Each structure stands twice: as C-alpha cells, then as structure tokens.
Amino acid sequence: MDYLVRFVQLHESFRKAELEALADLYGIDMDFLHYDQYTPHCIIRLPDENAARKIAGRSILSKGIYELWGSGSTYAELHQDVKRRTSNLWHLYRSSSFKFEIQAYQAKRSLAEQDALIQSFRYTGFEGSIRMTDPEQTFCIFEECQWGVKEPTQVYLGRLVAGSSRPILDTYTLKKRKYLSTTSMDSELALVTANLTQASPGKLFYDPFAGTGSFPIACAHFGAMAMGSDIDGRAVRGKHGLNTLTNFQQYNLVDWYLDGFIADLTHTPLRTARILDGIICDPPYGVREGLKVLGSKDGGKKKKEIHWIDGKAAHLQDHYIPPKKPYSFAAMLLDILEFAAVYLVDGGRLSLWMPTANDEEVELEMPVHPRLEIVSVCVQAFNKWSRRLLTYRPLRDEDVKDFRPARQAKQEEGSTANDLNSFRKRYFEGFREPPPPIKEV
C-alpha cells in the first residue's frame, strides 16, 4: 500500500534518513516512490498499516502518515485517481464518523473554497456523522503551491493512519529543563539523532561527551539504557544541587540511566569489548577554547616528580585534576571512530556531529574507518558554516581488511589551538577566502 508522509518543512536533509533508520530498526521493507526536500509531502510504499503506525509513532520530523487515496496535478486528476484507487474501500467507512481537513503548502484557502473542495468528494458516499473532535476517520486534502500562485501544482487525498511523536518536543524543550549549559543540544535534534542511531529497549547507549545529558535523555525516552561521560568534571558533578541525574528525574527516566562519570575518550575506563549498541555524541568543536586530552605536553618524556599532600601522593587524592595537553580536532574525530570500531556490537550505530565550513568539500571532511561504513549524512546549515550528523555502522568481520585497534590517533603537528583545529582558525577568521597570490611583475 502507498502512504503519504506529511513532514515538517524543517531539517530537510534529516527527514528521509530518519524514516530509513526507523524502517531498518523495525525490519520493515520501505520504498520511496516520491521525495523532494523542497516540499513537505513524501510518498512511500509499506507492507501494511501496522508498519505505517510503527514508523509514525517514532518519527520526530513528520506530522503524520496517511493512507494515500489519490494524487494528481489537478483536482480532475485527483478525483479520477481516488476513484481508481479506493472505490472498493468506501463501504468500509460509510457509517464511520469523519472529518475533512485541508492543508495548503505556501497558499491559503478561504472557508468557502475549503467547503467547496470538501463537497467535491461527496461521491465517496460517507453517511456517518461529521465530528470535528476525535472522529473515527480523518481525511486530508493536501495542496502544493508555488509561492504567490494560488492554483496548486500537486494535490493529494489521504486517510490519517497515525500521528507522529512530534508533540513530545514540548515535554523535552530546553526552556523547561532544569540543568543546562550553553552547549546543551537542542531537544528536537537530540531525539532525531537518537532515532538515526536506533535507540530502543534492550540496547545500551553511550555518549562520551555527555555534558548535561541531552543525548542520553533522548535515548532513554526511546527505551534504551543510557550512560555518559565527560572530561570536564564540572559538567558531571553539576552545580547548585543540579546535575544530569536531575534531568532524568524531571522526565521520570531514572530507571534508564546507568550513570555519568568523568573520563577522557582516549583513556576510557570501559573494558575493551563489543558492548555498546549505540554511541551518540556531539564532540566539542574547540571554538571557545582549544581541545584538550589527558596527558602531558611533553608526551611523558620527562620523569615527573611526585608531590605529596598529608603523606599521600597528590595524584591519588580525590580532588586531583590530571594534566591535559592540546588535542587536534581531526585526531579527535578519528579517535571517536576508533572507539566505535572497538566497542560497537554487530548492528550497532555511531552518530557523530561535526562542523565544517560551507565552502569545503564534504567528502574530504568526513572521517572514515576501515571497520565502519557511513549510513547517512545530514546537514544543518548556518550562515558561513554547517554542522553535519554522520551515522556509521560496523562492517562484518569478514568484510574488514587490515584492522588493528589503535589506542589513539596520531596527533597533528602544532602547539596552538588554531594549529590543531583548522575549523577554529577559519571560524575566527570569519571564513574569509584566502587572499590571491601576489603576481610577480
């Protein structure tokens, strides 16, 4: 059966990837018959109505899924297609309570025009009561119009099968969250990322740059067990009696939260094994301050003198802060992929956010790993830069060649934050084009 998906006209490059991830999660065969990122309507083919309900029930970037009753470039074509497709279904809904809606994209209809369009479908023979609140069946006329042109270029009729999970955004909005920081991920994109990483009951998810816990919260909402860590102990411990646990308590998700701990990805305390179903993260971009990782700047070449406090070595004290060294952004991305290659179970996923300047080639920017394949690339564009959500999954062992786990990626040469992070350098330069070379006279 063919179905119409009514998307929100937002985060366009994420919408198709979200549907594909959900279909794969539930083992549903889904074909895209029509998709255009510039319109909110998509036509897909699914096995049955139950499959449509499953996908709609998890989707964040759609408003609902409708059984497609007809389509056309004019209303004459639409009526002809409705009769061809669904005349054998009309008797099923003859006595049901119902209502009709009209959704016009980039246009408006007067009440009189809406009534005339609705009345044009009288041939369906529905005899049930018209109920504007909680009807048994909802039918919707969808119009696509060019901006400033009243007559539609495409029209559809659909029967509502299921609404989406989009209403939960009001529950998780950052405006109501108790524990926040300036880098807390937007709740909508956190939930979408959890969908792309396929968070679900019975799975273990980990965020190595957890901060205030936006991603673990999103994963827990979908039923996954979640944990997070951060190299910044202040984010883990919280302040004024508030921390990540406070947020899980706010949403009644404590049962799905394992814990948060202070850790550096390159010196993880997790035992080396394939134990994670999902890794989901938005690593620091190093713009506000340079990236750092545990270690000494001299690489441990010089023997360090042990300092003693009250007869106990300083580095064994509870409040000891270990030294940190500069860390390149490129090395961090490769270390994340290395970590995922070691810890992800077969069928697991890694979703990783990364920034890039808009004038740089995406293919050159995306980190790769011999044991991981890219599933999807989604782009959130800003003014002169973008951030991309990259989703990976591990290859089967028999498909991997020459993979040897490495503890940490090779560090780039440089001593300053800008030397180690080309994106940071270009950010503060305003993404200006480099000056042309001076020609010799």
Description of the molecule:
The termini are far apart. This protein has helices at 12-25, 49-58, 75-86, 111-119, 169-172, 187-196, 214-221, 233-237, 244-250, 329-343, 362-365, 422-428; strands at residues 2-7, 31-34, 41-45, 62-72, 98-105, 137-144, 154-163, 204-207, 225-230, 257-262, 276-281, 292-294, 308-309, 312-313, 324-326, 344-357, 372-381, 385-394. The protein has a seven-stranded mixed beta sheet with strand order 2-3-1-4-7-6-5. Helix 1 (12-25) packs across helix 6 (187-196) and helix 6 (187-196) packs across helix 7 (214-221). It contains twelve helices and 18 strands. The chain is an alpha/beta fold.
Give a quick summary of the entry:
The chain is of the alpha/beta class. The chain is 24% helix and 27% strand.
**Strand elements, count:** 18
Count of alpha/pi helices: 12
Rg: 26 Å
Largest sheet: 7 strands, mixed
Fraction in helix: 10-25%
Q: Looking at the structure, what is the overall shape?
A: elongated
As laid out across the biggest beta sheet, the strand order is 2-3-1-4-7-6-5
Taking pLDDT < 50 over at least 5 consecutive residues as the criterion, the unreliable ranges are: none
What's the overall average pLDDT, rounded?
87
Strand content: 25-35%
What structural category characterises the helix and strand content?
alpha/beta
Series of H and E elements: EHEEHEHEHEEHHEHEHHEEEEEEHEHEEH
List keywords for this structure.
18 strands, alpha/beta, 441 residues, seven-stranded mixed beta sheet, elongated, 12 helices
Write the layout of secondary structure elements.
Layout: E1 2-7, H1 12-25, E2 31-34, E3 41-45, H2 49-58, E4 62-72, H3 75-86, E5 98-105, H4 111-119, E6 137-144, E7 154-163, H5 169-172, H6 187-196, E8 204-207, H7 214-221, E9 225-230, H8 233-237, H9 244-250, E10 257-262, E11 276-281, E12 292-294, E13 308-309, E14 312-313, E15 324-326, H10 329-343, E16 344-357, H11 362-365, E17 372-381, E18 385-394, H12 422-428
Parallel strand pairs: 5-6, 8-9, 8-11, 9-10, 11-16
Antiparallel strand pairs: 1-3, 1-4, 2-3, 4-7, 6-7, 12-15, 13-14, 16-18, 17-18
Helix pairs in contact: 1-6, 6-7
